[in-house]
Queue: 3 jobs
Job 1
Amino acid sequence: MFVPCDRGGGSAAPDFKGFTLLMPAVSVGNVGQLAIDLVISTLDMTKVGYFYTDCLVPMVGNNPYATAEENSTELSINAEVYSLPSEKLVVLQIRSPFIKNKYRPFCETLLSWVKSSKCARVVLLSSSHAYQRDDEQLLGTPLRYLLTPDLEKAVGGRMKELNWKEMERVAAYPGISDTDKILHIPGGGITKLLFTESCSEGIQMAVLLKFCSEGDNIPDAFVLVNYLNEWLQLIKSESNNSTDSSSQWKIPSSWRLLFGNGLPPALF
Amino acid sequence: MATFFGEVVVAPSRAGLDEEEEAREETPEDREIRREIEKKREVDVLWTWRSGGCAEEPLVCSRFIVAIGRNAAAFLSSFILDSVCWEVVGVVKLWNEWCRTSSTTNVLPTDSFCLFYRLISDPTVLLCQCSCYVAEDQQFQWLEKVFGSMQKKGLQVTILSTCPVADYKTQESTLTLVSPFLRALKTKEFQEQVCCPLLEQPNIVRDLPAAVLSYCQVWQIPAVLYQCYTDVIKLDTVTIEAFKPLLSSKVLKSLAKDSSESTKILKKFLTTSDTHNNIYI
């Protein structure tokens, strides 16, 4: 459930009516979550609440977007909500994996919050196992999108203009050509479940995903967030090349030491 | 990657292993098995201060001190708890793959248990020693059943726990770090002085200590967590003594025992842990 940060008398609960909800799927390489970190850090978004749930593994730490001594001691938990009212943007960041058997309850709680808070649409950043691509998917762009029927009507044209590639549906039984085509997002965590539920509940949802593998997924996060930016224009590109705005994304301080501590000097 | 026997295994993805399982529809048999496992893994909190006929009024609590893990629990046993000033008021019964708690209150420091004590002279002071491992699917239940029994107005929470120094992220190598050492995390509402440096980015805390602190942050309860980074995983007097700076804190200062008694109890831990650690006669 959404719990606002400020609950003192006089301050109203944040209003997300008409906002775009941006959120990650916990998926291969954690690419969606890394991309969301870049968005929150670059746009200097304000934390407005927590998504208190029993579906995610608990974790706490100090402010992952700290820029100075003064703002480094604010506690952060595993699922938090940030907002930028000037852009009508609300972001949910998820920082830990799902507890077993809790995918479905989480999706239900999330979609019910989307409906009650009257968000206009949801954009889900995700990823899928690169090794599961078929021969055609191995060539060309590793980025894909999906739109629920309600959002297709609104922005389908824009995707065509941007020359984006829709996620292919695959045969239910590979090798047998006359079976139904289904959506298959291996390594995508709750992506498929959230998308199919949104389709059936009439929620406007877009999924933006990248094919990738586990490893150093920082470059994948940059590619995904630039892909998002082509559509939502969250940051304006300074250079002439409108597709490359990598240098303008601010890496959060919590990305330090991702691959371990310093080395013992006695090693050399 | 190959295991010892040469078969190839899939490297676990951070995305979660069984998404396919989750997406599949449950058969009635699956549902039955899942329900049975959930029932077996239920967390039961038995409060002994509630007698049969009483309505379930919440426990008024001003200070709640939680020690998670054997060393943190042993710190409370050595420096705070005794059988004269404190009485047992609750016990947690749970089972998971790592441990089963005993419902007896006569426990050894090396047992798995979760007990609640109340200060007889001030019944609003509650203390918990939780040396059993509470699994990730049980942590929320533990929180709701423990905090659900308390009146949270005016409550302040102090959490003590330990974790391996190898988990500590720092620019230097962990070889040069002097352990054990303390680090703290506090909620927004906690205004008092902390007894050690705050936990630096990008370090995080997990498991039950994180669950308790998250609960306090969300529900605006002043709380502080003291995490002791240590390189000893078993019961160890050096790790236990690393918590000593906390005895100067506002919460624990008035509760601390006589130091000679503490030394006696610590010596007892030394012999207990030696017996368990030594596999050679």
Job 2
Amino acid sequence: MQVPLLEIDGLKLVQRDAIIRYIARKYGLYGNTLDEQTKVDVLYEGAKDFLFSFMSFGFYGDDEKVMENIKSKTLPRYLPIFERLLSESSSGYLVGDGLTYADLCLLEALLVTEEYFPELLSDYDKLKDFKVKISSLPRIKAFLEGPQRKRKNTPEYCGTVKEVYYKCSSTSFQLQELVTKRYFRNLSGLVVLPCTCTTTD
Amino acid sequence: MKAHLTYFDGRGLGESIRLILYAVGIEFEETYLQDAAHVKRLRQAGDLLFMQVPMLEIDGMKLVQTNAIIRYIARKYDMYGKTLEQKTRIDVLYDGARDFIMKFLNIGWNKSMEEDSKDVKENAVPRYLPVLEKELCGTSSGYLVGDDLSMADLAVLESLLYCDDYFPAVLEDYPKLKEFKDRLSSLPRIRAFLNGPQRKRKLTEEDILHGKKVLAWLYQ
């Protein structure tokens, strides 16, 4: 049992990154040359580390520690790096001349940063512009303002996830983020399919 | 042409890169992190994009992020499948195998070697091995995807080698996996790595104590 699970094109795909890469490859969001693909991979992994630092919030009862860690280590590391990368880009995208899934992952990380630490983005003009630019792309805007956009972690949500994982699998506990894939769904104009999760007692 | 890996003198994330470099026939030299000052110098020189290791100098680039490094090598040396479907299946299996490898990499760092091992044996092993055994049953070539060695095979191999290290008898119950591990370990380049001087040894309790100090260098 594992989620996210995406049913698409007759396939049942698991593994968040594999799902994202499938959609990116198929819809041209993965860069055009070997060089660009490499850059996209590197920047995606970095943006993912940035995003994932927020992932455990609400789950382990150590939220203060998580937030302190993000404020003192994560943000001072990643914000300047991505600010610099964007200032070196002439297109306004992280790699090449068009949107890639690295941009989407960075956007997601910036949106969650804005939710928890809005004041800490104020010194980063390129990141602010980037966030506005990508959020305003019509399909992404439609997602962010639409009914399938999920909200910040709540105790109820965290409770449900924990219960499902403890009942469905062993005690090893993996958190996966569904939001990024939904960006793709909207970007490519596909209909979003519901995520299925079967439980066995 | 030689590549150059900067990492710790230990397995960790670097070992996966060492394995694929050998598998495709790229020779490489290594720099081991010495101390906090060394890390600082590398960062100030701009060599570490995200201030982390591993970092692989290859083909004029300084690549970071383990998965990105491995994908670069796999793409260039035809270890990433041929069709969209094959690439997707490789991604799924590779990512799953990486999750499994990470469970082994965390042994000794969480609670203790004994407790963490027990957790992996009771939880991770019964979760991953049956799935991987089933995947192998579904192939005729002896490789997980298509007819050739891919980055997914190497990731699964690495996880099985860790199984061997920590739980020697456990693969007896998984004949396909055992055969896969033995066969791939005997491929000339992979055997040369596993028997050679660049293969790092299994961590001991002492290594972990020392390692915790070493890791602190990266967080200064």
Job 3
Amino acid sequence: TTWPNTDCFSEVAYSQSTGQKEQLSRCLQRGIRRVQDLCKVLQLPTVFEETAVSYFQRALQHPSFHLVSLEKKELLGGCCVFVTCRQHNWPLTMGTICSLLYAKQELFASVYLSLQKELGLSVPALSLGDLVKTHLNSFRLFQHAADVPAPFVEDKEKMVARTMQIVELASETWLVTGRHPVPIVTAAAFLSWQSLQPAARLTCTFTRFCKLAGVDLPPPAHLRLKELLEIFLRMASQLAWLRVFNMDKKTVVKHIGDLLQHRIFLLKNAFCLEDEEEHRAVALGEGSPRSPPAAGGTAQEEGCPSEGKRQREGGARPLLPPCLINPRKRLRTAAPSTSDSAITGNEPISDSEIEQYLRGPEEIRAFRKAKAW
Amino acid sequence: MDADSDVALDILITNVVCVFRTRCHLNLRKIALEGANVIYKRDVGKVLMKLRKPRITATIWSSGKVICTGATSEEEAKFGARRLARSLQKLGFQVIFTDFKVVNVLAVCNMPFEIRLPEFTKNNRPHASYAPELHPAVCYRIKTLRATLQIFSTGSITVTG
């Protein structure tokens, strides 16, 4: 045997020979390509693509994202695009990104929150006005089609304008804070569509409307619709020419245009605003309307005093988030007794106290027999 | 709310999480067989043991690490942790109660006013983050205290840290 001539093989580190040109790992290259494809599908400007790619590169260098599964790395790309869009006030929802990536929203949410925390990114909240315009763009009611009856076709500009007004009203009446935005916009779009031509459209249900429009009907949208109608009914009770009529959830839709036109005045009259009640209470010499709150926080404690309520015509309701108006039953926790509050943690432990946590020998035998351990 | 109004706020501690070590290996199967009020999670390799007084739940690993949750004060957490260690001693393990540490305290407080979360977030960046698509509350982090507050529109605030 002859030894091969090894002089030509000198010890060279991989990074100096082959690895020097390999700046990016395959995983990173694939991830960057995915981010770029996502930006192209969403038709985002080039600057968004550059920002999203830089976030993705930064994230992958972070130890928290080094060893995550491929599935999470795919979602990481989507999160970077999502964050970039939000920072540029581009109205992209999580639902859209999740449907494009075929991802579960819970997993996407966990990756998004990790990304936000690890990179210290500041993500502004979604602008509802932009979301209304984007969401309504996907509705198929603005052009004549075979499956859409002629009376159901609507002018886009009118519908967007009225939906924006209803969404603003929802925001002023505590229906938006803390809630998912898309169901509110869908419910507002339905009401604005119905109110623009009520004669032909009052018989159309919410479900049928969403089917005709070609959009999903998210489950909370029915509740948001109900809450919006309650607000409108309250406002209608303050409008002089509607007081004589017996308004219900169907008939109030015909007057949404008038209600929106006078909404500032009607909201003030229909709902009890806290500042006004304080001034009235002080003027009447009743003292502060607020008593020190208990840990439970109910509507009665935070709303108007009952005397103030009775004084108003039609019984104005306080303007509060719906969960305070209809609070769920809360289990009362027992107040700590004096013996509990004297605990130091170093008290002696009696055998009898511990024996209740141990099984007796017969019990162990019976258990072993039953479980066949 | 006026700055000079004197409204007392009740801050209620709802949960205290503590850890301790037993400095010995624990046979989970033996604990599951001979202990009462025990749930054996074989797939994840831990045992849950619940005490009645105080009302706490302990998660026990075979390495000897134990996490106790459910206490409503730090003293109560230590009270329960010691009782748990004593129970393990009675089961025959050479338990030494060490490295006791309270790792998390969860408290709830109610403000006497509602909070408009989008405006609050805008005025409190970068500490506050609000994602209504994920969670109805604003997450406010205080890095210096290592505390996280969940602020709801109803005025309810949950503090953890």
